[in-house]
Write a structure and sequence with these properties.
Largest sheet: 8 strands, parallel, barrel
Number of helices: 13
Structural class: alpha/beta
CATH topology of the largest domain: TIM Barrel
Strand order of the largest sheet: 1-2-3-4-5-6-7-8
Helix content: 25-40%
CATH architecture of the largest domain: Alpha-Beta Barrel
Length: 329
């Protein structure tokens, strides 16, 4: 599996970011996978960690919450199988080196979180498994992204299996902080796939990102926005809204069409009704001289475009012509 194959002939690749919205419940995680498939996702993404290798135990409240959300490696193996049975790609973000090694056996794609896009040892470890790697760029500026890119070039000459995802690490991201033009900057300056990991409310930003050239679209996903007080449920799309996003992403390339002007078949049917032709507005006998006031430009079109009007002035009719009938040449 490589990134090129993953995205081949696709206008978009929609990742349902489940993250920790299962809250440590395996059955909820399974429901999220099945629901993501029904909602039009192409992949599901989880977060895999050993809490004590991820959070300082002295951060008691945070540590306790994440420990509660922690799923076992065995459970992740089962979730990977369930995802693949549902024809979804299985993605996870490792938050420690041990989890990264474990995931190398079961994921289709690795994801590096925004908080770890400067944790080069972790990045180096996942890259060595020769699987697609998506790196979110939240908490970054131009300088830090260039530093990351330079590091990647040092350890891997061909970056075709890597992607940068524009991201703002706010929950949710206000509309005026989304800064989607960063996508244009990234495309111009870095020779790898550019995608978008979205934390805004709604579906508008991912659709714009797709229009700007991002095939990889990641969006938080939940069964219910009121599932619990856990923050991520509020910024996530529920199944109905994820389905809406999926359908709109499919609609976008259809509406954009191709880069040329042409008359389609349905328009062609309307030419007669909507175009105009010159008509005489009175009966004129043979050899009558056609004057400007004798001509009206009317619908429907009967074969002559309005621009021939000037050619008709001061010409003689070769035969009697009844008003409002086609002028024959």
């Amino acid at each position: 599996m490589n990134l090129k194959t993953l995205l081949k002939n696709k206008s978009h690749f929609l990742i349902a970011e489940i993250g920790n919205n299962h809250e440590g419940n395996f059955n909820t995680a399974v429901k999220l996978i099945v629901s993501a498939k029904k909602s039009g996702a192409d992949a599901v993404k989880f977060q895999t960690f050993i809490t004590e290798k991820f959070i300082n135990p002295q951060e008691k409240k945070r540590y306790k919450k994440l420990k509660k959300f922690e799923l076992s490696f065995e459970q992740f193996e089962k979730l990977s199988v369930i995802a693949k049975k549902n024809k979804l790609k299985f993605i996870s973000t490792p938050f420690d080196l041990v989890s990264a090694e474990f995931l190398s056996k079961i994921v289709d794609v690795f994801k590096i979180a925004s908080g770890d896009n400067n944790y080069f040892n972790l990045i180096d470890k996942v890259i060595k498994y020769n699987k697609p790697v998506l790196i979110s760029l939240g908490l970054s500026d131009n300088k830090s992204v260039k530093k990351l890119y330079t590091h990647l070039k040092k350890i891997k000459n061909n970056l075709s299996n890597l992607a940068f995802l524009h991201c703002k690490s706010q929950y949710p991201v206000p509309d005026d902080d989304a800064n989607l033009k960063s996508i244009i900057y990234l495309k111009k300056n870095f020779n790898l796939e550019i995608g978008y990991s979205d934390h805004t409310s709604g579906i508008f930003a991912p659709i714009i990102a797709n229009h700007l050239g991002c095939k990889l679209i990641e969006k938080h996903f939940t069964l219910d926005n009121n599932f619990s007080s856990f923050r991520d449920h509020k910024v996530a799309l529920n199944p109905k809204n994820m389905k809406n996003l999926s359908e709109n992403l499919k609609l976008l390339p259809k509406m954009l069409g191709v880069e040329k002007i042409f008359i389609n078949n349905e328009e062609r049917k309307n030419i007669r009704l909507m175009r105009r032709s010159p008509y005489l507005n009175l009966d004129l006998k043979k050899n009558s001289l056609i004057k400007k006031e004798n001509i009206d430009i009317l619908r429907p079109f009967v074969g002559h475009a309005p621009e021939i009007e000037n050619k008709l002035f001061n010409t003689k009719l070769k035969g009697f012509t009844k008003k409002y009938t086609k002028i024959k040449f």
